[in-house]
Amino acid sequence: MNFKDKVRFIRQNIKKTRVRTFMTVLATAMGCSFLIVLASVGYGLQESIVQDALEQQIVTQIDVYGHEDENGNYRPLTLDDIELFDSTEGVKAITRRNQIRQVPTFALDEYKAEVMAVSADFPSEAESGMELSDGRMPENKNEVIVGYHFLNYLSVATEEDILDEETGKIKDEYLYQEEIIGKELEMVVTREVDNDVATETISLTVVGILEQPTKEWVSDANVYISEEIYREVEVFTGTPGGELGVNPDDVENKHMQNFEQVKIYATNLENVQPIVDMLDEENYATYSVVNEMKQINMLFTVAKAGLILVGTIAVIIASIGIYNTMTMAVTERAPDIGIMKAIGANPKTIKQIFVMESSYIGLLGAIIGTVVAYLISYLVNLGLPIIIESVFEEELPEGLLFSYIPVSLVVISVGICLLVTILSGMRPAKKATQIDVLQAMRREM
């Protein structure tokens, strides 16, 4: 009996009990669909969170916070550390920043803004991928770039109430409205020593404006100055970063060049982990989005495994119907089995026929269940956000997926469904091979 004959025999028998077979297939499809939809919730939330993290952060970026010595004490990063990082294989660029430890005043004609000033090494910033919305990168020490929201703070100096009561922001009529590129800013920094207050004015030229931050809630009004200007401020104040309230005589290591914020950019994602491992071995405190993704993926892997396990219970329940269907099929087809044995059919062939029939029911149910699961997933992603926003009046993040069905989930679910249905048909199939020929023929007569 070849494969085609077996398939023909199975299809003929299914047609005789099409209603019962349909109900069994329906139960299997419901179980498979439940398994896929339930697990898709874990996949959907993971996809949304990971995608958001990848969009909001640079995946090749590694933040380095400091170095831990043998005694467990942290020290800030220096040029020696930068040189070590630069010599590491797989490093594309290293940015280093320091923030002036006071709030300078930036003046342009009658307009003023009190915002933070941050020093940066512009060649490395450009190499790391810093993007501008307008202008160019600085080329000499007195050229600066400003944050995207800097103009929201550059306003005319007046005693009038310039804030909007509703938004809390400066009213448009008081803001600087002209082109800022090419204009000269006067940065005023302060020095305090024993109640003696002095100021220093440094002329800076704006040559660029940074791109808008990817996160809507982030406001960047900083002025990014050169490292040379930063050192001039330190020389003037006699304190690290121009910090106020510190006596210059009490400052140690005045000439030590430290960096508050250092970021390493790998050439590609594959090089991130080797660089992080090297930094960990050298006792540097680091953070990268890859580490965060590992933890997130681990949590979601456990959650998805749990959801798949719960969904498998539904498939197992559906397999009870397959077991009953196949048991009844063996009983009803006892005469046919007797005839097959009488003409010399191998018990192995008879067993294969019934296992194939249960597999056919399982495969058909899995296919239907998968199609239904995709339809449910689409409706959930389309309708659930609308319901939540209308009922709970909460605005959900853009692009949030409640359900996501990757190919791997379909393969896992169909595999589980087939495995369970095959196991359900094994016992009835074995029973079919044990039917006595004489009893089966006598029943036929």
User: Strand fraction band?
Assistant: 15-25%
How many separate structural domains?
A: 2
H/E element order: HHEEEHEEEEHEEEEEEHEEHEHHHHH
Residues in helix, %: 40-55%
Number of helices: 11
Q: In whole angstroms, how far apart are the ends? A: 25 Å
Radius of gyration: 36 Å
Shape: elongated
Uncertain residue ranges: none
Mean residue pLDDT: 84
Specify the structural class: alpha+beta
Biggest sheet record: 14 strands, mixed
Protein name: Acetoin utilization transport system permease protein
Main location: membrane
InterPro entries: ABC3_permease_C, MacB_PCD, Macrolide_Exporter_MacB
GO cellular component, one term: plasma membrane
Please outline what is shown here.
With 445 residues, the protein is of the alpha+beta class. 50% of the residues lie in helices and 19% in strands.
Structure description:
The protein is of the alpha+beta class and 445 residues long. The protein folds into 2 domains: 3-56 and 295-444, no CATH class; 61-267, no CATH class. It is 50% helix and 19% strand. The chain is built from 11 helices and 16 strands. It has helices spanning 3-16, 18-56, 79-86, 122-128, 227-237, 272-281, 289-332, 334-342, 347-392, 407-433, 437-444; strands at residues 61-68, 74-75, 77-78, 91-99, 105-108, 111-114, 117-120, 132-135, 143-146, 155-156, 184-193, 196-210, 223-225, 258-259, 261-266, 284-288. Strands 1, 2, 4, 5, 6, 7, 8, 9, 10, 11, 12, 13, 15 and 16 form a 14-stranded mixed β-sheet that branches. A two-stranded antiparallel sheet has the order 3-14. A hairpin with a 5-residue loop joins strand 1 (61-68) and strand 2. It is elongated, with a radius of gyration of 36 Å. It holds the Pfam family MacB_PCD.
